Amino acid sequence: MSANSLRLICISMLSVVLFLSCRKAENIVVNERRNLVVADQGNHSLLAVMPPEWRQVPSTEFRMLNYRFGESGEVFVGRSRGGLLTNINRWLGQFGKPAIESADDLPKVEVLGQSGVLVEATGDFAGGMGRAARKNAGLAGVIVAIGDQIITVKMMGGAEDVAAEQVRLIKFCEGLRISQGGSQ
């Protein structure tokens, strides 16, 4: 093969690569929901249907499911230690709210086949658990006892953003499922 032929082949290949790289990117539209299965450290798996308005982000050591919404809102599912009141009062304390002595008067939300309690707070968030203090913040969260475990579904963000997403949070909680052994 001559040097001219080799140059012609190289120029042709380069032209094809340049042509393909200059194509306009395709718009991708997501218009379906799928069950999200997350292994929970070898125990039961959680099945969740993520609202399309939320964005999934990687789970962490303490967040089995982890989402973002709006500009700075977050929703996460985790396990906690202590009882219902301990966790409720910790959340309320993060907003400078007084502790409660009973969860009986809090709204109930069906989650994982159990009756969980809905905790709401707005105001100045004092910070904690790796999050900075924030003015005009909002919290909506569900805490439920499953056997000897406490499962929490916590939504944090700007007060108005949290209020606007609360219906989705409740539907998300009502749709959570446990899959035995990873099977659906």
The structure class reads alpha+beta
Rounded to the nearest angstrom, the distance between the terminal CA atoms is: 60 Å
Strand order of the largest sheet: 3-4-5-9-8-7-6
Main sheet properties: 7 strands, antiparallel
Architecture, CATH level 2? Sandwich
Overall mean pLDDT score? Answer: 84
CATH topology name, in short, is Jelly Rolls
Q: What is the count of distinct domains?
A: 1
Task: Give the uncertain stretches in residue-range form.
Answer: 34-44
Structure in words:
This protein has helices spanning 3-21, 84-93, 159-175; strands at residues 35-38, 45-49, 55-56, 65-69, 73-80, 108-111, 114-125, 134-146, 149-158, 177-179. It has 184 residues and is of the alpha+beta class. The chain has a single domain, classed as Jelly Rolls (Sandwich), CATH 2.60.120.1690. A 7-stranded antiparallel beta sheet has the order 3-4-5-9-8-7-6. A 3-stranded antiparallel beta sheet has the order 1-2-10. The longest helix is centred in the N-terminal third of the chain and has 19 residues, at 3-21.
Topology:
Blueprint: H1 3-21, E1 35-38, E2 45-49, E3 55-56, E4 65-69, E5 73-80, H2 84-93, E6 108-111, E7 114-125, E8 134-146, E9 149-158, H3 159-175, E10 177-179
Antiparallel strand pairs: 1-2, 2-10, 3-4, 4-5, 5-9, 6-7, 7-8, 8-9
Question: What are the salient characteristics of this protein?
Answer:
three-stranded antiparallel beta sheet; alpha+beta; Jelly Rolls; single chain; seven-stranded antiparallel beta sheet
